[in-house]
Amino acid sequence: EDFEYNKNGQLQKKIYYSGDRKIIYHYELYSYDNNGKPTYKLNYHSNVKSPTGFVLLDSTIYLYTGNLLTTENIIYPLANYYDKYSYEYNGKYLIKKTIYHNMGLESYITYECQDGKILKKRNCEKAGNITSTKEYKYKDSALVEIDYYTPRHETIRRKEYSYNDSGKIVLEKVDELLIYSSSLPYVVKYEY
User: If pLDDT is split at 50, 70 and 90, which confidence band does 5 have?
Assistant: First the structure.
């Protein structure tokens, strides 16, 4: 991947290559308003039938109320459909993300926050049934654990984080807790 930035240090273009970097598979273009907030993203994919060699696969438009992102509209012109994400806030904290597909409600995510930290995230289908839950635990301001739950509130996965004296993550430990999970436990060590 290659990244290009504008004079304000904002990501302007992201390029994805094949393994040998001889072919560009797709690239994304980003635009920002005068306050530095993203206004849109264009996603172009390679296509031999296009005169330019690329077609616009999707475009995302970001809408705000004040400094808060309220809507993302994602249009897929070749497939002739679109997705919409609506965001609701309690003050400055996100409490709900609603997902629509071609105007129809698909699902939604609710958030419980305290002191600027997410404590719980619930994924729900459009009928309101919970499909999964994540619970976040902190020590002071550092995230130390995330528990993942099934719809029956069984713990399926646990991620634990350790930090060095500078506050940088040094260890991520992931345990798969249910037998029918196809994933294996693993540990990621970070070096600086």
Answer: very high
